[in-house]
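Researcher: Please translate sequence to structure tokens.
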Amino acid sequence: MKFKVDQSHVYSVLKFLAWILLAIVLAFVIGALIGYGMSGKGSPFAVFSPQTWQHVLDFLR
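Model: Translation complete:
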């Protein structure tokens, strides 16, 4: 049994998935900024520092 795939439907599904992925990444970044800014009591932008992530990885080991 073969299905006919409409290219516009495939495009709309991929566009929807791209928007969902973008929303997830944006929510992660905003959540990290807010969470680190409140709990870290420092600059919220320090969450993007490689030293911060190295400290987190060392803590988890």
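Researcher: Any highlights?
Model: The chain has a mean pLDDT of 89.
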